[in-house]
Amino acid sequence: MDGEAPGNFGLMDQQAAMQWVKNNIKLFGGNPDNICLMGYGAGATSIGLHMTNPKSMELFNKAIAMSGDFLSQSSIKLPEEEKKFLDSLARSLDCTRRPVSKFLECLRYAEVETLLKIAGKRSWKPLLDTSFMNNTYQPFLSEPPLAYFEREDSSKVPLLTGYTQMEGVLEVSELNNVTQVSSDTLRSLFTKLMQHEIPMHNDTESSCSNNPDHIIDAVMFFYGPDLYLKEPEEFRQIIADFVAEKNFAASTFFQASFISKDQPVYMYRFDMKPSTASVVSQIPEWATVPHLFDLIYVWGVPYWEKIGRDWDARDKSISDTIMSLWSNFAKSSDPTGKAIFPIKWQPFTRDNPGILIVDTNFEMGNIKTLNYKAFEFWNEYYPKVRDVALRCCEVSDSGANRNYLYSCINFFIVSLIAIYYS
Fold it and tell me: Does the first or last residue of the chain, that is N or C, have fewer Cβ atoms within 10 Å of its Cβ?
């Protein structure tokens, strides 16, 4: 992991493909000055990273980023994280770690099954690669994406972006067999779902040893029921909202807010669950629109005869509309330019953060259909609460640090009050 083997080859492959399209699109009747990138999930993350790369910036003119996050720190990995893994990998395979050329040679002779088993446990993400720069390698991603956007050193382009109503909910296995529920079971599941963000501290000397609990306290305060939690349906809905808003909706809202300062942005939430029974037979009845289910309409799957399903007329009609909206944006940066029927999809702005609810009505959302407070909680308050809670964990019980602890607690209380009354 250096200039000889820096990583980010996936992004470089994408860039090479983009360059090929730029060079050859005319031969297929396309316009090299009107190229739209489209990505889903990790592909949406890639789009944001290409917005920060000087070479990639010249290769596209607009983007459709679906169900993906590219401005948060969680969208990338730091070299320090990978160094620990590579050190461990070298030891487990009995490889020489340095120089990298020797390490690579050793990996080439390792058993394929062993490498696949190790790789399957890893979370693969783009990597900050500034430290690998040398005479032959220039970094693809030298800073976190947000840094580029904050100093206007990025290619902000017209953007169509959004998420589904129940993003990520199928990954929470605890929701499948919900019987007895309570605030304790809710807190326990919140803790499990957030454990990767909360380091464990066993320092009995520290006056802040339990401060990571404040993170869960804040989440419980925001998402917990007003009174008693009794019904499994309410429990599922709370967790579904939490997962979708934390991992997808808030970051999408943040991205839209940032880019809309300079370019038109159209944001949506996809609430349209397929009505063809055989399509949804494998997902729980309570799940509305999980991750990936919007692609059914984007790709016109109801018209795919070879998959052998008898799609109903409503699914075909919705697919017609979605394909029209998406293709209109790709052509003109305006999704409603030539829509099948009149749809008022207002651009997203900071003063009027409009979000289209994609269902049978295709209407703009409002405070009754969208939880704007959740976007504010995850984008503004939660990072501060988390920072204070985890910094407190490193404070010893001296007089000066007790004062710091009190300021931490004060900030925590003020933040919760602000969330509640904002």
Answer: C
Q: What is the pLDDT of residues 308-357, one digit of tens each?
A: 788 999 999 999 999 999 999 999 999 998 666 689 999 999 999 999 99
Task: Calculate Rg over the CA atoms of the chain.
Answer: 24
d(CA 352, CA 263): 14
352 versus 138: which is more confidently predicted? 352
Residue whose tokens read 């925001």: 222
Q: Are 36 and 63 in contact (CB under 8 A)?
A: yes
Say if residues 142 and 239 touch (Cβ distance below 8 Å). Answer: no
Angle at 187 between CA 182 and CA 193, to 5 degrees: 130
pTM of the model: 0.89
Burial zone of 172 (CB within 10 Å; 0-12 exposed, 13-18 middle, 19+ buried): middle
Residue tagged 């390490």 (tokens)? 103
Residues with Cβ within 8 Å of 74's Cβ and at least 6 positions away in sequence, in order, are none
How would you classify residue 151: left for phi > 0, otherwise alpha for psi between -120 and 50, otherwise beta?
alpha
CA distance 90 to 111: 14
